[in-house]
Amino acid sequence: MTEQMTGRLVLHDVSVRYGDVVAVDAATASAAPGEITAVTGHSGAGKTSLLWAIGGMLDDGRSDGSISLGDKTIGDEATSRSAGAVLIPQGSALAEVLTARDNIAIPLVAAGMSGGEASALADRTLASVGLAEHGGHLAEELSGGQRQRVAVARGLALSSLRLESGSAVLLADEPTSELDHDTRELVVGLLQDIARRGGIVLLATHDPEVAEVAAATWHLEDGRLTATARP
Ligand SMILES: Nc1ncnc2c1ncn2[C@@H]1O[C@H](COP(=O)(O)OP(=O)(O)OP(=O)(O)O)[C@@H](O)[C@H]1O
Ligand SMILES: [Mg+2]
Prior knowledge:
Layout: E1 9-18, E2 21-31, E3 36-40, H1 47-55, E4 63-69, E5 72-74, H2 77-82, E6 85-88, H3 100-110, H4 115-128, H5 144-164, E7 169-173, H6 181-196, E8 200-204, H7 208-211, E9 216-221, E10 224-229
Helix pairs in contact: 3-4, 3-5, 4-5, 5-6
This protein binds adenosine-5'-triphosphate and magnesium ion.
Adenosine-5'-triphosphate (ATP) is lined by residues 18, 21, 23, 41, 43-49, 90.
């Protein structure tokens, strides 16, 4: 591992509520740096809600319990961001009228990179997901699977940057749902690279083949989490 180890991500009694709906119900679990943890469960089981709680992306008051990374408490926007939380959102969430390159480079600049470095890293990560020729295309001109790969590339680039400054917690929310078999393997390999460099990778997926690469699984059923390590 090239980057420093950062300690485990630990959740204790984490709940997420939307009014009367309990999306995550007192989840207690931990995930190690250097590993992929699969987050599984049927549609509506609470996967996205759990990832957003860890990323500090929920509206105030929606989550409670405690979340920590090593000796730091996280779980709100500022603390999760400074601990290196990066979301690959379900459904890609690209800015339509920006190019693929700018969809990646602008968040990198916002995270402190210079414009030139950010464009170069954007181009490298686009190439790594098989989109070397698409950097100048507007997001709205891309196919669903290409858009998903841009969102993955953005998450990978930001995670790389976060790793350089200490730690990354990559929250990958169904990042391969629109990809063919070979492209899926490519993306899973890139997520493994982030883990190998010392990142914590949480990978929400409905795909058993994708979940198989994980060292551990957090399975959600109606918001209740059961954690298992790979035998
Ligand atoms: N903004 C919201 N307002 C109200 N209820 C919500 C909101 N977001 C999610 N929910 C509810 O919380 C529960 C968990 O949703 P969540 O999106 O976390 O599930 P998921 O496991 O990610 O599902 P999927 O596999 O379909 O993405 C569901 O019952 C959902 O209807
Ligand atoms: Mg979801």
